[in-house]
């Protein structure tokens, strides 16, 4: 080792004095580099060769102790089992299937009832000394309500299923009336417009 070192220094000394050709200088330089590489400690060489790239993922180890407890660590230990992970591994959670709510039930359209008064005509004048008169009504369209109810001078006075009302003992003068349609519980389903009639009676003071 000392002889080789002495030769190298001798050659370098000659080079610095400019007495050797260029090819000799190159050979000497290469020999010096080889000598330095051979004198480098083995640990240093192994460390540089086995260095882990900076962009490499850290290694994870699985350690199971004597009690069966599992530990994961990035430091190698005795009886540690290295784990490998796929670089494309992703945590994927499947979304739960949501059952769409049932469609809201469609409300059946409300039936439209309609009733009209056929007799007497609006503002009609009725002459009857006994105060008798007849009011009749009818339904138009469908469906049909089961009951007619007569409202006379703002008061319900009769109900039936025919729509024909015969009244007696009505006093002379103006009277209002209308006919309603009801169900079996008495709920009003439809109503005719309010009309007015005039009942005339002969006066007892006038000879007929």
TrEMBL record:
InterPro entries in UniProt: DUF4124 (IPR025392)
Region (Disordered): 31-59
UniProt keyword Signal, yes or no: yes
Pfam family, one: DUF4124
Residue ranges occupied by any DUF4124 domain in the UniProt entry: 52-110
Keywords: Signal
Signal peptide: 1-22
Record's protein name: DUF4124 domain-containing protein
Organism: Alteromonas mediterranea (strain DSM 17117 / CIP 110805 / LMG 28347 / Deep ecotype)
